[in-house]
């Protein structure tokens, strides 16, 4: 909890400092995060960032990038504009299998009774994340309204796309929905 509060103070102070406009990146818990990211000629802005821990070990730093900053999770989930979840692996304990199992569990929680209809798309995601994962790997899980699909990008390389605005809603619901995998992380991503 202390780390999250310190992280929020850092983000707020950076966002409101007079030098914030000139800064191209911020450092959050030792991870350098770009203040903006480009996706298909669009500029996305850092909305918030937080860390995900398992059994007292920080496993990744996650950031939310939006076309327009927002603290409203329902609006973000339902918005049909470019947005991205950026995950940087911070622990050597994270493997492809562990990451896909965690995403699957979060997706199942987010989808609720509709989970079965997304199983084939979750298999696609699992395949796109099948390569070895090492500390420092960066994943950009970006929604593109131009083709209504989630783009799965690892270390700058497109691994594949998963179609469907409905999939995007459930996917962002993993972290921003009514039953997020981590309530403190949700607040950090929303910048609240």
Write the layout of secondary structure elements.
Layout: H1 2-16, E1 25-28, E2 31-34, E3 36-39, E4 42-54, E5 57-66, H2 73-78, E6 83-89, H3 96-111, H4 119-128, E7 138-144, E8 149-154, E9 157-163, H5 165-176, H6 183-190
Antiparallel strand pairs: 1-2, 3-4, 4-5, 5-6, 6-7, 7-8, 8-9
Helix pairs in contact: 3-5
Mind explaining what this structure looks like?
With 192 residues, this protein is an alpha+beta fold. It has a single domain, classed as Chalcone isomerase, CATH 3.50.70.10. 35% of the residues lie in helices and 32% in strands. It has 6 helices and 9 strands, in the order H-E-E-E-E-E-H-E-H-H-E-E-E-H-H. It has helices at residues 2-16, 73-78, 96-111, 119-128, 165-176, 183-190; strands at 25-28, 31-34, 36-39, 42-54, 57-66, 83-89, 138-144, 149-154, 157-163. The protein has a 7-stranded antiparallel beta sheet. Strand 7 (138-144) and strand 8 form a beta hairpin. The relative contact order is 0.17.
């Amino acid at each position: 909890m202390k780390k999250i509060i310190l992280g929020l103070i850092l983000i707020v102070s950076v966002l409101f400092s007079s030098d914030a406009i000139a800064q191209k990146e911020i450092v959050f818990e030792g991870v350098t995060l770009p203040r903006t990211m480009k996706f298909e000629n669009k500029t996305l802005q850092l909305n918030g960032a937080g860390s995900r821990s398992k059994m007292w070990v920080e496993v990744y730093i996650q950031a939310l990038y939006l076309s327009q900053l927002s603290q409203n999770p329902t609006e973000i989930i339902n918005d049909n504009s470019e947005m991205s979840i950026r995950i940087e692996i911070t622990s050597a304990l994270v493997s492809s299998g562990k990451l896909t199992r965690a995403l699957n569990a979060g997706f199942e929680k987010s989808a609720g009774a509709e989970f079965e209809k997304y199983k084939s798309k979750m298999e696609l995601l699992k395949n796109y994340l099948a390569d070895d994962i090492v500390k420092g790997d960066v994943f950009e899980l970006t929604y593109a309204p131009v083709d209504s699909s989630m783009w799965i990008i690892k270390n700058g390389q497109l691994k594949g796309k998963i179609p469907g605005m409905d999939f995007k809603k459930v996917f962002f619901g993993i972290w921003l929905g009514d039953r997020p995998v981590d309530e403190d992380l949700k607040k950090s991503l929303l910048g609240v």
